[in-house]
Amino acid sequence: MTDPIRLVAFQGQAGAYSDLACRAFFPGVATRPYPTFEDALAAVREGEADRAMIPVENSLAGRVADVHHLLPKSALHIVGEHFQRVNHQLLAPKGATLATIRTVHSHEQALGQCRGFLRAKGFEPIAEANTAVAAAKVAAAGDITQAAIASSLSADLYGLEIVQPDIEDAKHNTTRMLVFARTPEIPDAADGPCITTLVFRVRSVPAALYKALGGFATNGINLTKLESYMVGGNFVAAQFYADAEGHVDERAMRLALEELRFFSREVKVLGVYPANPFRQTGMADLGE
């Protein structure tokens, strides 16, 4: 029996979108912010937290920087995934209106994702470390000429009012989050669709990547994500990150991984976990 989850770690500040995602995936469970992704993962590894929820990619901004380098080194296991819709709220102190606001504070990505709205209203954007910091700063100032772009959770935590909801230019802005634990929690293959996440480095021979991935094609395994990134600070060695639809106990996946290992220097499975229902119900909205 799995022990109860008491605390979930995330990177950022209370009220950030990662905090919102933790509360959505783990309703009623306490959350705790950490300064960096590495700190949040270390909190789980060292027993301070039971889980960590880390963003890995966004439908507009793409891959979250640095995360893929941290995953293989974390000594943790991926046990779940969550897709968090990002709905940006225009927050301001009580009494503020669209007519009183002059400046809007937020993270540079959030400002960029609301660029059309800000331009149409003539608001001056001011970049902050993250959206929750922006909300806290605006709340502390208490100035009706200042507003923040942040989550509805930030409005509740910092006593701000939602002057205008859902101001993002793209209405299907979504961030994929991964859930990490100290021990693996591999579901039964018969319980439903699963995702296997792995990292690997191919041998330095011609067509090595083509040959290494051939086993997925011949065994009918769909790769939903494949990315490369440099390791060791040089332009020669590349490590690959992949998400594959399937379970390691299924024959097709076993055969695909056998072929991958034959042509690779190193293969590490980071986790086998249930595919989030969003993959079936929400991907169409993202243009998939």
Automatic annotation (TrEMBL):
Pfam families, per database record: PDT (PF00800)
Pathway note: Amino-acid biosynthesis; L-phenylalanine biosynthesis; phenylpyruvate from prephenate: step 1/1
Reactions catalysed, as given in the entry: prephenate + H(+) = 3-phenylpyruvate + CO2 + H2O
Limits of the ACT domain: 197-274
Alphabetical list of InterPro entries matching this protein: ACT-like_dom_sf (IPR045865), ACT_dom (IPR002912), Chor_mutase/pphenate_deHydtase (IPR008242), Preph_deHydtase (IPR001086)
Domain Prephenate dehydratase residues, every copy: 7-182
Uppermost EC category: lyase
Residues spanning the signal sequence: none
PROSITE patterns linked: ACT, PREPHENATE_DEHYDR_3
Site annotation Essential for prephenate dehydratase activity: residues: T175
Record-linked NCBIfam families: PRK11899.1
Example of a GO MF term: prephenate dehydratase activity
GO process terms (BP): L-phenylalanine biosynthetic process
Species the sequence originates in: Elstera cyanobacteriorum
UniProtKB keywords: Amino-acid biosynthesis, Aromatic amino acid biosynthesis, Lyase, Phenylalanine biosynthesis
Protein name: prephenate dehydratase
GO CC, one annotated term: cytoplasm
EC assignment: 4.2.1.51
